[in-house]
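A.,

Following up on our hallway conversation. C-alpha cells first:
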C-alpha cells in the first residue's frame, strides 16, 4: 500500500503517526545531553587544572619570596652596609643596594630606618620618600608579620620582603621587591600552562590591568568579570565561565585601599576537541530523524486538513460575529465530536457576549451607563453637533460629603446612597435622548445633546434642588449635596476630551465656591496647561532619576555626635535648574503623584542607609511624608517591602509628619501611625507649633519625637515669647516621654540656649548644611575640629 493511499478511520489512529516526531525529540535530547556532558567534563577538567595552577602559582610566589628574602639577608648581613648605616653614608648604601636586585632578579631595593626615613634606594640615591605601601608593609613587619607581601607602588604591583639590619637592635630594614609585570606573568604562564593576568584597583574604582598573557582585545571583558570578592584574603573567587574559557581569581594582597588579584584562565576548546567527531555523527542522525518526522507530518496533514478547513471557516464566521453559522463536519470520529463541541461553544459565546456587553457599558451598582458608554455617546454627540452645527452640553457632578458617609456609616450605606442618587438623577432628566452616567466613585455625568449652556444651567439647578433634599437610607437621614460643572460645545471645546476637562474644571470651581454649579470659565483654568506639563516632567524625573537626595545632619546635644540624617529631595530640572521641594511637592500632592515621589525617596534613602551600614556608619535616616501618604492604607506594606528589599530594619527609619497632615483625618492618620509604630518605625511630628493639633490627639499618637519649628528657634535668644514657647514645648515633650529636636539652629548662642533648656537634638545650617551622600559620609568621619562647617564648634 502506497503512502498516499494510506487511510485511517479515526483521529486516534492517525495520532500514532505523529509519534514519529518522537525520534527527533529523542535525538535532540540525546544530542543536548551529550553536548552538556562534554562541556561539563571539559569545564570540570579545566577547573581542576585551575586549582592545580592556583597552588603552583602560590608556590612559585613563595619561592620568589624566598629568593628575595635570601637576597635581603645577604644585604642585611653585609658589614659594609651596617657601617654605612651607622655613618649615614648614603652613597655606599645605594651602591650596596644596587647589587641586590641582580642576585634575586629583583626590581626594587630600599633601606629604611626604624623611624621610617629612607636611608638608601638602589634606583635613586637621594630625594625620594618611602612609598606609603612600603611603609605599611614595614609597619606590619615590625609587628612580626615577616611574610612576603604584594603591594601597589607607583601603579605597579611588587612582591616585597623586609629583612632587619641588626647586630643587636634593628638599625633599619632592607626591602627587596620584585615587580610583577609582563615578564613575570609570562614565566608563570609557561610553568602553569594557563593564561595569567594581574589586575589592581583602589577602593571602588574599576579594575586596572597590570599584566596579562591574554590578547589585548579581551582585556576589557576580563576586567569587567573580576568579582568584587577578589579582595585580600586566603580564598580564591571563581569568575563565571564564558563559552570558551574557565577562570579563577586569586586575591594576592594590597593596602591603602589598593588590592591586587591574579586571574588564571583555561581555554575549553582544546578540552572538547576529541569529542567533536561524536557530535558530528549525532548531528547527522538528528537530520535523518528530522527528515522522517517531516514525512510523518505531511501524511498526517493530508488526513486532517479537510475537516479542519471546515472548522477554520466556521471560526472565521464567528470572528466576524456570525454566531449562527455551524461547522459542517460529518460525525463519526474525534474531529466530528470537536465540530459538535465547537457549535455548542458558539451558542455559549453568543450568550456570554451579550451579557458582557451589558456589563461593559453599564454600572453594576446603579444600572446607569458607565464611563466607557458615556465617552462613546459624547463622541457621537460631538460628531453629530459638528455635522449639524448644533450645540450640546456636558455636566460633571461630584457628591459633597460622600466620603463622610462612607467613613461614618460604612460602604454598604454608601452604595445605597449612590443608588438613590442615580434614581433621582434619572428622573430629573426630561428627555430620552439625555444620558446620565456614573463615571466612578461618587462622580456622575450628564450629556444634553442639542442643548446649550442656558438649558444646562436649568438642568443643573434642578439636580442641585433634587439632591438638596435629605436621602432616607435604612432609617437614616443622609445629606449629601452636589457640585456640578458645565461645559458647552462649541464655546468651551471642540472635542469630547476638552469638554470633559472643562466640565471638571468648572465642577472643582463650584466645589471650592460652594455655589452648587458653575459654567466653565477660562480664568479658572489658566494654570492647567503648565500644571499638566509639570506633571509630565515630574513623572519623567522620577522614572529617569532626575531627583536627588541631600542629607542634613542631626546632632545629639548630650552625646555631642551625629545621630541621624534627614533626607531632603531636590529636582535637577534640565531647564529650570535645581528645584527645592516647595516648587513641586505641593503640586504632586494635589495630583496624587506624591505617592510615586515618596516611594522614590524612601527607596533611595533606605538604600543609602543600608550602604552606610556596610561601611560602618551607624545612622538613622529621616524622611518627610505627606498627608496623602499618611492616609494611604497600603503605605505600611510598601514601607515594609522597601525595607526588606534593602535588608534594613524598620527601626533605622524615622518618618516625619506635620501636625496639619495628622489633623486632616485624625482617625485614619492614627490607624496608619499605629501600624508603622508596630513595625518599629520611629515617628516624629515635624514643624511642631505651627499647626492646629489637639493635645488630646497628640497624647494618643504613637510618636517618638517632636521637632520644634524653626520660626520659634531662630528668635529664641532675642524674643522672650519664642523662648517661652520652646521651653514649654521641651518640658511638654519630656513629660510625655518624647525626645525634642530644634530645627533652624543658625548660630552658637541659640545652640547653647537649647542645650541649657534640655533640648535633645539640634539641626540647622550651624550644625551642618544639606550634603550629598558622599559629603555626609566624609563629614561624619572627620574629627570635629577638622570639619569645614560650624558643626565642629558644636561638638567641642
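Then the amino acids I'd put at each of the 796 positions:
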Amino acid at each position: 500500500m502506497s503512502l498516499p493511499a494510506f487511510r485511517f478511520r479515526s483521529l486516534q489512529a492517525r495520532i500514532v503517526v505523529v509519534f514519529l516526531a518522537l525520534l527527533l525529540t529523542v535525538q535532540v535530547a540525546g544530542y543536548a545531553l551529550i553536548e552538556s556532558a562534554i562541556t561539563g567534563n571539559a569545564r570540570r577538567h579545566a577547573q581542576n587544572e585551575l586549582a592545580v595552577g592556583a597552588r603552583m602559582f602560590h608556590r612559585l610566589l613563595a619561592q620568589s619570596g624566598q629568593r628575595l628574602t635570601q637576597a635581603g639577608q645577604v644585604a642585611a648581613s653585609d658589614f659594609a652596609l651596617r657601617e654605612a648605616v651607622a655613618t649615614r653614608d648614603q652613597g655606599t648604601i645605594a651602591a650596596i643596594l644596587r647589587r641586590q636586585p641582580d642576585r634575586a632578579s629583583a626590581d626594587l631595593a630600599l633601606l629604611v630606618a626604624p623611624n621610617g626615613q629612607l636611608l638608601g634606594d638602589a634606583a635613586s640615591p637621594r630625594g625620594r620618600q618611602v612609598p606609603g605601601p612600603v611603609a605599611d608593609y614595614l609597619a606590619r613587619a615590625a609587628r612580626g608579620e615577616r611574610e612576603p607581601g604584594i603591594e601597589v607602588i607607583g601603579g605597579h604591583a611588587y612582591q616585597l620582603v623586609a629583612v632587619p639590619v641588626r647586630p643587636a637592635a634593628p638599625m633599619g630594614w632592607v626591602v627587596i621587591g620584585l615587580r610583577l609585570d609582563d615578564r613575570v606573568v609570562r614565566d608563570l604562564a609557561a610553568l602553569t600552562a594557563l593564561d595569567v593576568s594581574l589586575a589592581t584597583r583602589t577602593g571602588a574604582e574599576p579594575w586596572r590591568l597590570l599584566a596579562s598573557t591574554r590578547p589585548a582585545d579581551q582585556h576589557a571583558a576580563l576586567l569587567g568579570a573580576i568579582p568584587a570578592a577578589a579582595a585580600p584574603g586566603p580564598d580564591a573567587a571563581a569568575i563565571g565561565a564564558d563559552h570558551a574559557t574557565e577562570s579563577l581569581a586569586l586575591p594576592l594582597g594590597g593596602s591603602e585601599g589598593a588590592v591586587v588579584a591574579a586571574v588564571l584562565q583555561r581555554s575549553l576548546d582544546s578540552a572538547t576537541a576529541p569529542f567533536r567527531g561524536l557530535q558530528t555523527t549525532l548531528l547527522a542522525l538528528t537530520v535523518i530523524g528530522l527528515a522522517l518526522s517531516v514525512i510523518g507530518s505531511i501524511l498526517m496533514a493530508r488526513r486532517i486538513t479537510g475537516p479542519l478547513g471546515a472548522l477554520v471557516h466556521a471560526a472565521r464566521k464567528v470572528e466576524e460575529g456570525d454566531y449562527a453559522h455551524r461547522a459542517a463536519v460529518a460525525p463519526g470520529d474525534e474531529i466530528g465530536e470537536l465540530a459538535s463541541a465547537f457549535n455548542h461553544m458558539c451558542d455559549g459565546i453568543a450568550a456570554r457576549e451579550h451579557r458582557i456587553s451589558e456589563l461593559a457599558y453599564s454600572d453594576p451598582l446603579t444600572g446607569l451607563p458607565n464611563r466607557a458608554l458615556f465617552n462613546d455617546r459624547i463622541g457621537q454627540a460631538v460628531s453629530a453637533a459638528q455635522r449639524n452645527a448644533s450645540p450640546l452640553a456636558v455636566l460633571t457632578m461630584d457628591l459633597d460629603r460622600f466620603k463622610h458617609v462612607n467613613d461614618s456609616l460604612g460602604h454598604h450605606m454608601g452604595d445605597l446612597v449612590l443608588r438613590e442618587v442615580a434614581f433621582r438623577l434619572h428622573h430629573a432628566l426630561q428627555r430620552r435622548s439625555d444620558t446620565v452616567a456614573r463615571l466612578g466613585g461618587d462622580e456622575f455625568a450628564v450629556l444634553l445633546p442639542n442643548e446649550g449652556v442656558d438649558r444646562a444651567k436649568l438642568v443643573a439647578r434642578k439636580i442641585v434642588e433634587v439632591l438638596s433634599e435629605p436621602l432616607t437610607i435604612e432609617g437614616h437621614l443622609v445629606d449629601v449635596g452636589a457640585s456640578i460643572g458645565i461645559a458647552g460645545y462649541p464655546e468651551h471645546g471642540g472635542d469630547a476630551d476638552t469638554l470633559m476637562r472643562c466640565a471638571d474644571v468648572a465642577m472643582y470651581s463650584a466645589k471650592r465656591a460652594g455655589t452648587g454649579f458653575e459654567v466653565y470659565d477660562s480664568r479658572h483654568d489658566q494654570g492647567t496647561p503648565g500644571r499638566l506639563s509639570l506633571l509630565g516632567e515630574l513623572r519623567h524625573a522620577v522614572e529617569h532619576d532626575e531627583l536627588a537626595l541631600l542629607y542634613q545632619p542631626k546632632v545629639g546635644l548630650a552625646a555631642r555626635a551625629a545621630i541621624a540624617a534627614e533626607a531632603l529631595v531636590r529636582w535637577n530640572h534640565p531647564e529650570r535648574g535645581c528645584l527645592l521641594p516647595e516648587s513641586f511637592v505641593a503640586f504632586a500632592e494635589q495630583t496624587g503623584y506624591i505617592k510615586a515621589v515618596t516611594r522614590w525617596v524612601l527607596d533611595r534613602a533606605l538604600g543609602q542607609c543600608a550602604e552606610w551600614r556596610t561601611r560602618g556608619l551607624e545612622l538613622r535616616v529621616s524622611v518627610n511624608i505627606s498627608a496623602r501618604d499618611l492616609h494611604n492604607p497600603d503605605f505600611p506594606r510598601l514601607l515594609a517591602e522597601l525595607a526588606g528589599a534593602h535588608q534594613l530594619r524598620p527601626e533605622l527609619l524615622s518618618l516625619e509628619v506635620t501636625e496639619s497632615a495628622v489633623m486632616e483625618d485624625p482617625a485614619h492618620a492614627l490607624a496608619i501611625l499605629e501600624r508603622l509604630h508596630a513595625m518599629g518605625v520611629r515617628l516624629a511630628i515635624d514643624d511642631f507649633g505651627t499647626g492646629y493639633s489637639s493635645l488630646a490627639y497628640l497624647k494618643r499618637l504613637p510618636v517618638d519625637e517632636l521637632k520644634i519649628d524653626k520660626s520659634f528657634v531662630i528668635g529664641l535668644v532675642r524674643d522672650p515669647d519664642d523662648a517661652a514657647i520652646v521651653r514649654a514645648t521641651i518640658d511638654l515633650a519630656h513629660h510625655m516621654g518624647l525626645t525634642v529636636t530644634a530645627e533652624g539652629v543658625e548660630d552658637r548662642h541659640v545652640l547653647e540656649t537649647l542645650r541649657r533648656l534640655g533640648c535633645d537634638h539640634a539641626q540647622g545650617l550651624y550644625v551642618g548644611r544639606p550634603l550629598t551622600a558622599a559629603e555626609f559620609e566624609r563629614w561624619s568621619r572627620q574629627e570635629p575640629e577638622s570639619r569645614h562647617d560650624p558643626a565642629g564648634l558644636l561638638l567641642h
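Residues 44 and 246 are 9 Å apart (CA to CA). Curious whether your intuition agrees with the design.

B.
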